[in-house]
Amino acid sequence: MKISRVWAMPNKWTFQIKPIAELLARYVGDGKGWIDPFAGENSPAESTNDINPDRPTTYHLDAFDFANILEPKLKGVLFDPPYSAHQAVTTYKGFGKRQQASVIMDVIGEKIASSGLAISCGWNSNGFGNSMGFEIIEILLVAHGGGHNDTIVTVERKVQGKLSNKSGKGDLTSVVF
To answer: What is the distance between the alpha carbons of residues 107 and 65, in angstroms, rounded to a whole number?
Structure first.
């Protein structure tokens, strides 16, 4: 597993942060076969979704509903939901239902093809996890200095099917998506 740490200015559009954009260019390429359920702005994925109709995405669905319409055998997913309940309320005020990220991950994880990738962004490196059949291949820590939390990017490869009926993700706080 490769672990690296870099410094970059924060940006609410995660994929505009230079080291993250470079990582995505290495793994995602032209974006064909990739999905992004929380696309916002600047996603390289072929199929994008954001519940806010003002965002330039392919779909404007609740992330859970988007996950359920996806066909199996995806090359990969970019998973960059709001990192906290506060961010979710601020970003998606008035949009969507309350969903746990782990529930959405369970649906999407089942649809990633064998050897497909999951690239998750957040304040932790949990990603999709071993119980979903994924193994970590790279972690990028992006420090932003001062009072800003690091952005942690976890790259995982699907090595087998789901190991159990439980995601093993603990009890996440419900947030609005």
So the answer is: 10
What CATH number does residue 66 fall under?
A: 3.40.50
pLDDT of residue 32: 98
Q: pLDDT digit string (tens) for 24-33?
A: 999 999 999 9
User: Which domain range does residue 118 map to?
Assistant: 2-176
pLDDT the model gives residue 169: 47
What is d(CA 43, CA 20) in angstroms, rounded to the nearest whole number? 11
Say how far apart CA 7 and CA 99 lie, in whole Å.
32
- Select from 43, 52, 41, 42 the least CA-distant residue to 77: 43
Q: What is the largest CA-CA distance in the chain?
A: 42
Our count of domains for the chain comes to 1
Q: Between the CA of residue 51 and those of 38, 72, 126, 144, 157, what are the distances in Å?
A: 8, 22, 24, 27, 27
pLDDT in tens, 69-93: 999 999 999 999 987 666 655 665 6
